[in-house]
Amino acid sequence: AGKGTFQGLIRRDQIAILLKHRCFQKSAKRLIRADKISPFMSVPSGLESFVDIRDNMDPDEAPRLSWADFREYYPEVPLIQDIQIYPADLDLFVDLTPYMNLSAFSVHHSTHALRIHRLFRAMGLRHLTVVNSKNKVEGMITRRHLTVQKAKTRFSMDTYEPDIVNNDEWH
Fold first, then answer.
1. CA–CA separation, 40 vs 38, rounded Å?
2. Residue span of the signal peptide, if any (predicted)?
3. What are the chain's domains?
């Protein structure tokens, strides 16, 4: 995968928990053995032995969190302003790869709003990454972007699919 291409998705609450647990690492490596990856990271078929995870660190340097570590904070996630970060921490890294959703949905930047809305509803999504033809991230769509009022003002002029303002699927 090229630099700047969509690789996966990680939620803000997961990042906050990683920072709270001080999952910092000092140096970067290009490859890590798949058996050293966190137990809830999916490994693509055919890459069972090694997975390319850029900027990954020595697994012995930082603690690896399990699902139980994340569940401990549910539903109260630590606030960013309450997490202590020291000046020395600013030179360290946090490897997000073991915690990313590598199978996150994405849509092409020209995808019609009605199709996006159907995908959100059918899959129960919270976020949807928008990519261009080179799989570079163009933006992010959230549930808030798809509220009926926003859809009425933004997409009512579109003629490629049925008028979404009067479409029964919106109710």
1. 6
2. none
3. 12-99 (no CATH), 106-170 (3.10.580.10)
